[in-house]
Amino acid sequence: MSKTKEMVEAAGQALVTNYRQPPLVLARGKGCELFDVEGKRYIDLYGGIAVSSLGHAHPRVVKALADHAPTLRHTSKLFFKDPGVRLAPRHTGLTTLTSGPTADGAPTLTRAFLCNSGTEAIEACLKLARRAAFLKGETRRTRFIAFHNAFHGRTLGALALTGTPKYWEGFGCDTQSVTHLPYGDLSAVRDELRQRPGETAAIFVEAVPGAGGVLPAPVSVLPGLRELSTADAALLIIDEVQTGIARTGAWFAFQREGIAPDAIALAKGLGGGVPIGAMLIREGLNEVLTPGSHGTTFGGNPLAAAAANAVLDVVEEEGLVARAETMGRELSQRLSALAARHPSLFEGERGVGLLRGLIMRKPFESRGMMAAARDRGVLLSAAGDQVVRFTPPLVITSALLEVARVALDLAAQTLSQKSELPKPNNPGPPVTAVTAR
Ligand SMILES: *Cc1c(COP(=O)(O)O)cnc(C)c1O
Question: Are residues 48 and 380 in contact, defined by beta-carbon separation less than 8 angstroms?
């Protein structure tokens, strides 16, 4: 039995089957390449879903982990610890605005709450918003506005914000507290705030909806939301879990729009592959989460914070913010060319920086393209049924993008040829949970 088969079978027997993994077992990574247990090489254009910002086994991240592993791995929240204390001012210090009405060179967000994941950072933001209102005596201000197809995480609070009803099914999650509106529809937001004055604790928005289809905001959305939320005294909270840490060609996507949010949620790219999340808040909100009101055992643990410090060092030193912009343009050009060569498969491409989507034309679906690409040695993720998502490491090179383009072109040819074959009348026996889901 092959190693892959053996491990896929073991996984099928022991792991909760809540994912739809292909029969592929990854063993190691180096730079922007991954290798499976059989030794086959893949180009990583999904970056662990926008997580592996510096690629795999980056020497600086490895060193940060190696330096800290033997000294201090865990202290809980009961004591300060060096890497987390150093991390907080570093990432808040990056939240300056260089354009827009409030651009004064000072950080817009000044304090950090460290946690372990994106959904936890969102959860902290939810609690922050409600309690801020509560402490002001505004007990009716408990509602949230979020947007259709937004993705904010899978805990019950973050899930209620997530604007995809199929994810709620059977979980009894409190979507009554959330009004979901069409993404970017400012007049719908205005109407909602007018109909329920003083009831909205916060508006949650992704600067560029990632999982919902990599749909860049029309230019006016974030400034419009800033204005509306300020007028109603609701908080504006930007989910930068996917867009933060240089992904869109700015440290944070909100900076591209020249507005200051009240809080942002970070995770994914921050730790370069090590689990860490953060809520960054503006001055004036620090009194909200008083001692004992919120916490986490693992949050800001030294190993993760040390990795995040290394990521910020390298992004700064290697100019990866600007690089995300230039490489994003290159990726965009290659994807446009690919789409133009296969117009029956692709409608086109869109995105910001190194967060891009290749849009499939029906009846083709993202899963089919992902599988064909995987067969040709390129790993991708999906942003819904119709969009293939590209979130490569920020250190991706032109050379690898070109190798990937050729592979994707072959994958596209295979996919369109397959579709021309006559459909079998008999779909065959149902596939088992283990093999092909
Ligand atoms: C991935 C993601 C989350 C959830 O983060 P987890 O670390 O998976 O909990 C939340 N919001 C956005 C925009 C994301 O992309």
Answer: no
Q: How far is the CA of 22 from the centre of ligand 1 (A)?
A: 22
Q: Residue 254 in contact with residue 93, Cβ under 8 Å?
A: no
| CA 65/CA 85 separation, integer angstroms | 17
* 49, 37 contact by CB (below 8 A): no
Q: Do 218 and 224 contact (CB within 8 A), yes or no?
A: no
3-class secondary-structure state, position 7: helix
Q: Whole-angstrom Cα distance, residue 90 to residue 276?
A: 15
Find tokens 């205005």 and name the residue: 190
Q: Are 327 and 101 in contact (CB under 8 A)?
A: no
- Residue 435, helix vs strand vs coil: coil
Token match 């921050």: residue?
270
Considering only CA atoms, which of 255, 370, 337, 274 is closest in space to residue 20? 370
Q: Which residues contact 124 (CB under 8 A, 6 or more apart)?
A: 113, 115, 265, 279, 289, 294
Give buried/exposed letters for 238-255 (b at 16+ CB in 10 A, else e): bbbbbbbbbbbbbbbbbb
In the beta sheet, which residues pair with residue 144? 178, 202
Q: Which of 43-75 are b and which e, b meaning 16 or more Cβ less than 10 Å from the residue's Cβ?
A: bbbbbbebbbbbbbebebbeebbeebeeeeeee
DSSP assigned state of 141 = -
What is the CA(12)–ligand 1 centre distance, in A?
Answer: 25
Q: Whose CA is nearest to atom 15 of ligand 1?
A: 242
The preferred substitution site among 19, 119, 126, 205 for testing ligand 1, maximizing ligand atoms within 8 Å of CB, is 119
Q: What is the pLDDT of residue 1?
A: 78
Say if residue 120's pLDDT is above 80. yes
User: pTM of this prediction?
Assistant: 0.94
The per-residue pLDDT for 436 is 34
Per-residue pLDDT band for 424 (boundaries 50, 70, 90) equals low
Q: What pLDDT, in 10s, does the model give residues 73-118? A: 677 777 777 888 888 888 888 898 877 777 788 899 999 999 999 9
Question: What is the per-residue pLDDT across 222-264, written as a single tens digit (0 to 9) for each?
Answer: 999 999 999 999 999 999 999 999 999 999 999 999 999 999 9
Distance CA 346, CA 358 (A): 7
Instruction: Determine which helix (DSSP H) or strand (DSSP E) holds 179, and give its type and residue range.
Output: strand 178-181
Q: What is the 154 CA–ligand 1 centroid distance (Å)? A: 8
Classify 49 in phi/psi space as left (phi over 0), alpha (psi -120 to 50) or beta.
left
